């Protein structure tokens, strides 16, 4: 591979073999590896330093020339623009800093829900692609191959402009059982409001969790001592849900459902999801699911067939084989690429700017940047936020990988 | 006494039961092997019956294939408005590039394919010359041809470029720049010199940690601030710089994987032969490292190709951008126009990306076959 023709071999010899092996070439200062490495590093350091110096100098000059303010003081100034979707209190009088928070929370909102949806769809598709059912496997393959190879932005546009914007006006909404409504203003679903304290329910759920943990521990201990586990211990995790429901029923708290209804030109009551959110969420989760499905598939395929056969030889039934032998080993392969897909989804949520979903980039690098003109600070803050999210995730991932690494003989 | 009859020949074989042969057997094994599978098959069939006919009807039977304006597409129950794609086809390919100069784009494409195709198809042509052609004379030729202003060629501003042409320019520049840069960064990250290693790690992790959109915003609003007064870059060039830096960081990580897969003995052998660092990298390590990660590199290219659509956020009109802006053209406005445009664009992107992924599978098989020998 290295020298496949005579000419190149000759070249190689000429270059690499010293004419006189006894010569003192090695003692020349430029042949001293330490010195060379030192010189190279100094040179690189000087070049990078000079580059940074020139850039900073130019930027300062340009900012002064263009009369652009610098510093982070602008974060305190009133923003003066409205945001269509806010998770925390926000008004036009709120500061730019508050707008940043709103945008960041909106990014997290779409990312978290998107991750949950993408994981569910992705795992289903990954398993479906390996199904023994020919039709199901083919449908999953076609889905994955189409969705993976079409740009995400195009898919976002498709859902936003071609699907959601093409829905009828509010007065001719598509309704599902007369409680859910779809129209070009978004998706309207009935809201459930809790009458009473949600904190009590949260505490009871936590208590249920603790109880479940104790029961499982006790059962494990019992099994270690006597070989028989506690009856019904597998159901213990359900306590997390059962306890709050009991508390809810016993204490006589009520649930108030509010069905959205048409008033004038729009819908009132219930929960409404703005079309930007719905289309971004759909596109992100459908797109990322295709990649997750591929990770899941390769993870399952990575578990060798011998493992299933060995488990069967030990007398395990199909369901424990899957639960105790295949899934733990497949997860070891699946989880690292899965995290990077989650990270990709979070970064891809920045495409929101193209359809004006008020996420971090759209609110901050879009509107705030245009209003203040402080490009350097605004872009720096945006990038820092994404960068810290990424670095934090990869830090956790490295820790996890070290923890899970197979210790081989 | 009765006679005993003993058969001396085999009875003629009976045909296999019908459920054990042909499509019946296939269906029993692949569609109805268990209760769950049968249920899934039924659900899938119902799903297909519900979804396929309306789609086919939309795409073909009710579609409008030729029209002079959007009125035929505005009719109730009309399907895809393919006439819109037909009318705008020139724009989708070239943007607002002047009609009389379009031969230059086509010529550039032919020159590029002439260099690229022999590289992709396994053969015995001198690869280093082809690579050298693609990396130095071709970009210069392409620049002269596309942008003009030299040798009597009319100058075409980049603001008039658009459509598939911009998509290809951005993607190919990104690919061409990211491969060498990525190799250098990967080597730097594995270097024994702490300063160089640190710079490479910072560079790679920074670009990989931020979304491409913020990179494009940065290159469009911050880059002009970085330059001395009076010096300015073309908008397309700024986007190209952003895309190239961004994708080189991803490429570096792929190449790093390949470098790690080369056994330490190969590095040591290079040293033992008395080769310098660059000689042993060029002739021993990199050829092996790059061939093992060809699938990863191609995957990166696919990602980059899809990511080129993001340039529309900073006001450049790539294929998606031009479809998007044309779909609101009042002459063609209809409920189906936008959808048809998106489906067309999706199909074009799909062809490119799916083609690349098939190519990577093909190379993977070839390499595996090579390794087995």
Note down, in words, how this protein is organized:
The complex is a heterodimer of chains A (409) and B (373). Chain A contains 12 helices and 8 strands. With 409 residues, chain A is an alpha+beta fold. Among the domains of chain A are: 32-67; 96-152 and 275-404, MetI-like fold, CATH 1.10.3720.10. In chain A, helix 4 (134-148) crosses helix 8 and helix 5 (152-164) packs across helix 8 (275-302). The longest helix of chain A has 34 residues, at 96-129. Mean pLDDT of chain A is 81; it is low at 1-18. Chain B is 69% helix and 0% strand. Chain B has helices at residues 22-30, 35-61, 71-74, 82-87, 89-94, 102-120, 127-135, 137-147, 164-189, 194-209, 212-226, 235-261, 264-272, 277-292, 294-307, 319-326, 337-372. Chain B has 17 helices and no strands. Chain B has a domain at 157-317: MetI-like (MetI-like fold), CATH 1.10.3720. Classes of the chains: A alpha+beta (409), B mainly alpha (373). Chains A and B meet through helix 1, helix 2, helix 4, helix 5 and helix 11 of A and helix 2, helix 10, helix 11, helix 14 and helix 15 of B.
**Percent of residues of chain B in helical segments?**
55-70%
Arithmetic mean pLDDT of chain B: 84
| Named CATH topology of the domain at 157-317 in chain B | MetI-like fold
SS field, number of helical segments of chain A: 12
In round numbers, the mean pLDDT of chain A is 81
CATH superfamily of the domain at 157-317 in chain B: MetI-like
User: How far is it from the N-terminal to the C-terminal residue of chain A, by CA?
Assistant: 34 Å
Percent range for helical residues of chain A? 55-70%
Q: What would you report as the Rg of chain A, rounded to the nearest angstrom? A: 30 Å
Shape of chain A: globular
CATH architecture descriptor text of the domain at 157-317 in chain B: Orthogonal Bundle
CATH architecture tag of the domain at 96-152 and 275-404 in chain A: Orthogonal Bundle
Helix-strand category of chain A: alpha+beta
């Amino acid at each position: 591979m290295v020298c496949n023709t005579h000419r190149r071999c000759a070249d190689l010899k000429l270059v690499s073999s010293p004419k006189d092996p006894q010569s003192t070439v090695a003692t020349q200062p430029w042949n001293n590896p330490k010195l060379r490495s030192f010189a190279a590093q100094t040179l690189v350091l000087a070049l990078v330093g000079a580059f940074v110096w020139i850039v900073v100098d130019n930027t300062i000059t340009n900012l002064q020339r263009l009369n652009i303010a610098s510093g982070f003081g602008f974060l305190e100034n009133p923003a003066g623009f409205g945001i269509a979707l806010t998770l925390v209190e926000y008004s036009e009088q709120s500061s730019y800093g508050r707008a940043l928070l709103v945008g960041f929370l909106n990014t997290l909102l779409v990312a978290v829900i998107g991750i949950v949806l993408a994981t569910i769809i992705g795992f289903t598709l990954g398993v479906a692609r390996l199904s023994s059912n020919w039709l199901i496997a083919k449908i999953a393959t076609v889905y994955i191959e189409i969705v993976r190879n079409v740009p995400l932005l195009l898919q976002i546009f498709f859902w936003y402009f071609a699907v959601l914007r093409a829905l009828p006006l509010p007065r001719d909404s598509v309704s599902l059982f007369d409680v859910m409504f779809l129209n070009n203003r978004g998706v309207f679903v009935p809201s459930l409001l809790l009458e009473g304290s949600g904190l009590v329910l949260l505490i009871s759920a936590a208590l249920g969790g603790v109880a479940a943990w104790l029961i499982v521990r006790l059962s494990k201990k019992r099994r270690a001592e006597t070989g028989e586990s506690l009856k019904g211990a597998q159901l213990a995790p359900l306590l997390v849900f059962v306890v709050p429901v009991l508390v809810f029923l016993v204490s006589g708290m009520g649930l108030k459902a509010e069905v959205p209804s048409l008033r004038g030109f729009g819908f009132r009551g219930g929960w409404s999801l703005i079309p930007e959110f719905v289309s971004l969420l759909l596109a992100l989760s459908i797109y990322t699911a295709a990649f997750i499905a591929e990770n899941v598939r390769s993870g399952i395929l990575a578990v060798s067939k011998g493992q299933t056969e060995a488990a069967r030889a030990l007398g395990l039934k199909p369901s424990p084989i899957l639960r105790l032998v295949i899934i733990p080993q497949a997860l070891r392969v699946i989880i690292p690429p899965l995290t990077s897909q989650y990270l990709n989804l979070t970064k891809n949520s920045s495409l929101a700017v193209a359809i004006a979903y008020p996420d971090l980039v759209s609110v901050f690098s879009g509107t705030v940047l245009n209003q203040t003109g402080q490009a350097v600070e605004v872009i720096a803050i945006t990038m820092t936020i994404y960068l810290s999210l990424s670095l934090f995730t990869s830090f956790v991932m490295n820790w996890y990988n070290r923890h899970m690494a197979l210790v081989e003989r | 006494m009765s006679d005993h009859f003993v058969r001396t020949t085999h009875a003629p074989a009976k045909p296999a039961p019908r459920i054990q042969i042909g499509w019946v057997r296939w269906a029993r094994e692949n569609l109805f092997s268990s209760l769950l599978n049968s249920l899934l098959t039924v659900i899938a069939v119902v799903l297909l019956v519900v979804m396929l006919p309306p789609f086919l009807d939309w795409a073909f039977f009710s579609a409008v294939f030729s029209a002079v304006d959007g009125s035929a597409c505005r009719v109730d129950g009309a399907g895809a408005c393919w006439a819109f794609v037909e009318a705008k086809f020139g724009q989708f390919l070239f943007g607002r590039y002047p009609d009389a100069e379009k031969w230059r784009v086509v010529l550039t494409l032919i020159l590029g394919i002439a260099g690229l195709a022999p590289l992709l198809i396994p053969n015995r042509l001198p690869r280093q010359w082809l690579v050298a052609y693609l990396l130095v004379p071709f970009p210069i030729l392409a620049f002269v041809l596309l942008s003009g202003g030299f040798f009597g060629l009319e100058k075409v501003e980049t603001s008039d470029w658009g459509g598939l042409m911009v998509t290809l320019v951005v993607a190919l520049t990104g690919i061409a720049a990211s491969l060498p840069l990525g190799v250098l960064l990967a080597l730097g990250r594995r270097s024994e010199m702490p300063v160089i290693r640190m710079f490479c790690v910072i560079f790679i992790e920074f670009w990989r940690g931020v979304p491409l959109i913020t990179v494009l915003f940065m290159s469009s609003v911050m880059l002009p601030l970085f330059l001395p007064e009076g010096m300015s870059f073309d908008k397309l060039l700024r986007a190209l710089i952003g895309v190239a830096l961004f994708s080189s960081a991803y490429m570096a990580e792929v190449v790093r994987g390949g470098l790690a897969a080369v056994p330490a003995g190969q590095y040591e052998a290079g040293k033992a032969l008395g080769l310098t660092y660059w000689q042993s990298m060029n002739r021993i390590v990199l050829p092996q490292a790059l061939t093992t990660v060809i699938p990863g590199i191609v995957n990166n290219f696919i990602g980059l190709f899809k990511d080129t659509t993001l340039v529309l956020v900073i006001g450049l009109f790539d294929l998606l951008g031009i479809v998007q802006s044309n779909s609101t053209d009042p002459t063609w406005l209809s409920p189906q126009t936008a959808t048809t445009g998106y489906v067309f664009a999706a199909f074009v992107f799909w062809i490119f990306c799916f083609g690349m992924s098939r190519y990577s599978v093909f190379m993977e098989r070839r390499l595996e076959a090579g390794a087995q020998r």
